[in-house]
Design brief:
Blueprint: E1 4-9, E2 15-20, E3 32-38, H1 45-48, H2 52-60, H3 65-72
Antiparallel strand pairs: 1-2, 1-3
């Protein structure tokens, strides 16, 4: 499907992976987003055509893990 995948910090301090579709977002709830990736086709089609796995592999090379870690603290 299409939408967004989020790494969120839960109110109890645990982390979870959350998938949302359309305009849904964890920003309106208690979860604190610390990382997200757009998995709508428009995000990758020009560069990767139908290869979402290649898009996601490239995404991991761009993540600023220090920033993510700071947001988990």
């Amino acid at each position: 499907g299409s939408g967004w995948t989020w790494l969120v910090k839960k109110a109890d301090g645990s982390v979870a992976i959350v998938n949302t579709s359309n305009a849904e977002t964890p920003l309106t709830g208690e979860d604190k987003p610390v990382l997200t990736v757009d998995v709508w086709e428009h995000a990758y089609y020009i560069d990767y055509r139908n290869s979402r796995p290649n898009y996601l592999e490239a995404f991991w090379n761009l993540v600023n893990w220090d920033f993510v870690n700071e947001n988990l603290a």
